[in-house]
Amino acid sequence: MNNIAAVAAVVIKEMYRRKDFYVLLILTVLITLMLGSVSFYHDDKIVRYLKEACLLLIWIFSLVIAISVTARQIPFEKENRTIFPLLAKPISRTELLLGKFVGCWLACGIALVCFYLFFGVITQSREHDWQLVNYFQAITLHWFMLGVVVALALLGSLIFAAPSSNTTICFVLAAGALLMGRHLNKVALQMSEPGQSIVYSIYYVMPHLEIFDVRDLIIHNWPAIAWGPYSIALAYALVYSGLFLGAASLLFRRKALN
Amino acid sequence: MLLLLTVCFSLATMMEVRRQNRNDNNRQPAAEMDSLVGDSRRIFANTFFVKADAYFHSGFYPTIFDNQESFKTAHMAADAGAAASKNQGDETAFMGKPHDFIEAFSRDFMPSHHTHLDEGGAKGPGGDLGEASGGKVREILPWLQLSMELDPHRIETYTVTAYWLRNRMGKDAEAEECLRAGLAANPGSYAILYELGRIYDENRKDKFRARNLWEAALRNCEAQKAIEDEQGKFIGEQISTHLAKLEEDEGNYAKAMSYLEIAKGCAVAPEVIQARIDELRQKATGAKDAGAATKQP
Asked: What is the number of alpha carbons within 13 Å of residue A190 lying toward its C-beta?
């Protein structure tokens, strides 16, 4: 456990030493404030378009942070040859992998807290309606979804040769799951066999990241999600993260490092 | 990075020269938008109009994968009387039954019931419906504004925006400003003139200007032969019935009946208008008899 925590701490330090996160945060702030400065028919209480824009940026940038930070972890350790002294210490490959996962996931969590804090301030400046439970659910669902993406990117970093190809593929998969995941079954039903069975199988097997996207509920002030489905969704994310991490661990243990 | 910077710089210098050339030719800003995005701006304008309607439903809105029968006409436009509704079926059940357990589960994480912003939005009535303060309907305005800027010739956007501004938010000055901008981009538009007339009639109680605007609207509607298409008939009926009401209020029954005859030609249910005409005819006869009785010594 200590080994995992030590590796995770290094990953988190790396994140706040790099400028990526700050640049993305500043970009979010600037774009949101710029949009907020637009006046529509002298009404300064219009807020939902601003919430939508801000949340969209948060979602895009959190995916950028999660994938780009994770995809380079193992390849950079190998490239700089720091992986050899690291594994020479009393730490197993699985612990190293778990440490990287926990570090990247926590780093995403810290980034999310900053992003959502800004989102909360902007919303409150116009709406004056604290929806703490809704925000808590949105941020935790978002964070657990990023856990699946981080685990997927870690697995990808062991399969693909270059971090760039891994990053691209992870982006395509995550965006595909977010945009099409909800509709893939309807598409499948309109197809003929064997296409229908293939697409429906993909629908059942893929991680449904779109479930965690509750932006519409936040933007339009819908009531909070029931705690039952919410807990099941978190467990669902943990299962997929576990599956991807398990596969990555198997692969990492068998893989030659040089 | 350097290559990207070079491309950006070259593009900026090219665009600047073109922009100056356009300014020299005194072209309108809309033309600039035209040259940048071409005809795709109309598609985007329509997308943002639909987005406004999705906001009107607090996000409970069908995608292209869902049954859109009950959302063919934007509800905010139908409610505003700006478009004839072509919606059919149950608007609350466009999703249908879930096809599998994943779809059933995922519905807990998305807007799940039909609601309109002017009825209180996602949290239902009891909140700020906002006839006076603007309420929640104000949230559709940014998308309508964007739609207007992308396609200044999309008349429905002006009339819908103006309706919600004046009717639910009490902003008749802003509604007029919006319609005047629409009229500048679409001179002689009968739908905009009609909506402008409603501001003078319903908000400012200026019957004289309302009549002038509606008469102009009816003239344009007939001149543009718009009365022959479905949307034209829909607006034409409203213009003529409003004019008929004005004339009736002032006791000009013959004129009111002539307007109702026009309305009958446009109406989906002409028998209703005919009943109204008969009613007016009786009133006119009654008034004539009463007049004759008072003239007798």
From this structure: 6
Looking at residue A196, its amino acid is Q
Closest by Cβ to B103, choosing from A185, A214, A233: A185
**Which of B113, B139, B147 to probe by mutation at the A interface, max A CB count within 10 Å?**
B139
Domains contained in chain A, number:
1
Interface test with B, best of A38, A39, A49, A210 (most B CBs within 10 A): A49
Task: With CB atoms and an 8 Å threshold, state whether A42 touches B171.
Answer: yes
Is the separation of the CB atoms in B142 and A46 below 8 Å? Answer: yes
Identify which of B63, B138, B134 has the alpha carbon closest to the alpha carbon of residue B95: B63
Which residues from B are below 8 Å from A204, CB to CB? 100, 102
- A–B CB contacts, 8 A cutoff, strictly below: 91
CA atoms A187, A189, A192, A198: torsion sign: positive
User: Is the bond leading into B111 cis (omega within 30 degrees of zero)?
Assistant: no
Q: What's the pLDDT tens digit per position in A203-247? A: 999 999 999 999 999 998 888 899 999 999 999 999 999 999 999
The C-alpha atoms of residue A140 and residue A212 are separated, in whole angstroms, by: 9
Instruction: State phi, psi for A40 to the nearest 5 degrees.
Output: -115, 110
- CA distance from start to end of chain B: 100
CA–CA distances in Å: residue A242 to residues A93, A150, A173, A205, B73: 16, 11, 18, 14, 46
Q: Which domain holds residue A12?
A: 2-254
Domain boundaries, chain B: 36-187
The per-residue pLDDT for range B197-253, each reduced to its tens digit, is 999 988 888 888 888 888 888 888 877 766 667 777 888 888 888 888 888 888 888
Give me the amino acid identity at A43. D
- What is this model's ipTM? 0.84
B91, B285, B133: which is closest to A42 by C-alpha? Answer: B133
